[in-house]
């Protein structure tokens, strides 16, 4: 589990554990349970700026920002899976919790 958390970008920041985000923000890890899967999740913030303004749609901003939810889960038999759920933008949000509930319902632990 520790290797998977490291691979997915979780890290220690002093006493805190989670994922770093934009502008020095830090999303602290929280316990996560989706169906039979348990683990940790943390939300990180990002911001970007487009350089080529010709790629923008009419009225679209040069600035984009959003949230990424990073999730590492363990199945009852010990298999570990990792996800990154793009939380969308402030204007077009994605409910990552609902997505994860739906996705993990489709998993079958095979031996």
Explain what the structure shows.
With 111 residues, the chain is mainly beta. It has one domain (2-105). The chain contains two helices and seven strands, in the order αβββββββα. It has helices at 2-7, 96-105; strands spanning 11-13, 16-20, 26-28, 30-34, 37-49, 63-74, 80-86. The strands form two sheets. The chain has a four-stranded antiparallel sheet with strand order 4-5-6-7. It starts with a helix and ends in a 6-residue tail after the last helix. The model has no long low-confidence stretch (mean pLDDT 88).
What would the keywords be for this entry?
2 helices; 4-stranded antiparallel beta sheet; 14% helix; mainly beta; 111 residues; 3-stranded antiparallel beta sheet
């Amino acid at each position: 589990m520790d290797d998977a958390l490291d691979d997915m970008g979780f890290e220690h920041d002093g006493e805190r554990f989670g994922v770093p985000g934009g502008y020095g923000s830090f999303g602290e890890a929280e316990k996560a349970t989706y169906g039979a899967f348990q683990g940790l999740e943390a939300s990180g913030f990002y911001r970007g700026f487009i350089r080529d303004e010709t790629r923008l749609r009419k009225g679209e901003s040069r600035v984009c920002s959003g949230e990424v939810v990073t999730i590492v889960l363990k199945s009852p038999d010990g298999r570990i899976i990792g996800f990154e759920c793009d939380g969308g933008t402030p204007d077009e949000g994605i409910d990552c919790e609902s997505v994860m509930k739906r996705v993990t319902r489709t998993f079958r632990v095979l031996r």
